[in-house]
Amino acid sequence: MSEVLTLSDVQRARQRIAPCIRRTPLAASATLSERLKTNAYVKLELFQKTGSFKIRGTFNKALSLAPERHAKGLIAVSGGNHALAVAYTARALDLAATVLMPEHSPRMIVEAARGYGADVKFAASAAEAFAQAAEFERDGWIYLHPFDDPDLMAGQGTLALEILDDVPQVTDLVLSIGGGGMMAGVGTVIKSLKPSVRIWGVETQGADSMARSLAAGKIVTLESITSVARSLGAPAPSERTFALAQKYLESVTVVSDKDALDAARFLLERLKVLAEPAASSTLAAAARLQGNFSAGRHVVLLLAGGNVSLDTLVI
């Protein structure tokens, strides 16, 4: 496979999107350091505009296109964070946006996407949604894939540049995986600038397509997504993200929904941040991986999103 993404792509993306995004904080945590028996930090990407890392990629994609390509607007398929990122990006750039969502998408996501000005349309199935998106694309709309796009990966990789700026002594990074686009961008940066850093992937049971694919040595497609961590809900990685996961990751730890929700409650009670289960799963996984983290290591947990209803935490 030819090189999908380079460090230079991510560095250019950082300059391109800087006026559009928030540079999110990274903080040391005495509470997590004591719990994990190492030096622990949290990258608070859940404070990003729209509540997740996704706008880094959508802005980079939209801004890298020639203006005449924007004529119709942006089209996306998502019932989660990608929908909000596309809607917000379109509004910021004065573009139209249409988001095709599954019929049972969370109400807070539907309302927020509409609040950003997107036209939300519902589809009976994922297949139907993607078929409709293809029609929009043929009609001149710009389709933004949720993860399998080098421009998206480059934008999302910019958060790794911030991590290296803020914690240059980092030795380990724990991040969650949906389709793998963010992992691809982050891995490209980390392994280019500090290859000794270990990158630990995390998924939840019922949304573990990457872990299953790595175990099988080939792409495995899930029949359905059953995890509460909906924003990890890619039925399968792409050829690109699968290859980069094989290249960059130490492993993928699969945690239960209960462990992810328990971790979310702990983060809310002790760190005063509300992380969605897809993000809090990094803490649950770090607890499982604790034997790999000696007292002298510096472990960054990426809290990549915070779009969750409090109702989710009390099931």
- Strand/helix succession: HEHEHEHEHEHEHEHEHHEHHE
Name the poorly predicted regions. none
As for the CATH topology of the largest domain, it is: Rossmann fold
The level 1 CATH classification of the largest domain is: Alpha Beta
What percentage of the residues does DSSP assign to strands (E)? 15-25%
Number of beta-strand segments: 10
Would you tell me the overall average pLDDT? 93
Number of helices: 12
Percent of residues in helices: 40-55%
Supply Rg.
Answer: 18 Å
Largest sheet: 6 strands, mixed
Structural class: alpha/beta
How would you describe the shape? globular
Number of structural units classed as domains: 2
Query: Distance between termini?
Result: 44 Å
> What is the CATH architecture term of the largest domain?
3-Layer(aba) Sandwich
Question: What is the strand arrangement across the widest sheet?
Answer: 1-2-10-7-8-9
